[in-house]
Amino acid sequence: MSTDEHIRKRKSFKLPLIILGVSMTIFYFVIGSLLLFDKNFLAGIQVEFRNIFAVMLLVYGAYRGWRVYADNR
Question: Is 32 exposed, middle or buried (0-12, 13-18, 19+ CB in 10 A)?
Fold first, then answer.
């Protein structure tokens, strides 16, 4: 068993890792949504870069959410 798997299996680390994973997933979705839909949020960035970065944040947030779910089911 690798070190990462050993840490994930320990009960004392499981709940804080779940909370951190869920909160970071929500953070990525919120920031990505704000960048995509609220044009006044960080208005100094060009629209093309804002949209690309917003989509990247949403995709990464979905990936993080899937990993939290897959690791803890």
Answer: buried
Q: What is the pLDDT of residues 5-38, one digit of tens each?
A: 766 666 677 888 899 999 999 999 999 999 999 9
Distance CA 36, CA 61 (A): 14
Where exactly are the structural domains of the chain?
28-73
- State whether residue 73 is helix, strand or coil: coil
Neighbours of 60 (CB within 10 A): 15
Question: Please, are residues 64 and 14 in contact by the beta-carbon 8 Å criterion?
Answer: no
Measuring CA to CA, how many Å separate 28 from each of 15, 19, 48, 50?
A: 20, 14, 19, 14
Asked if 61 contacts 28 with a C-beta cutoff of 8 angstroms, the reply is yes
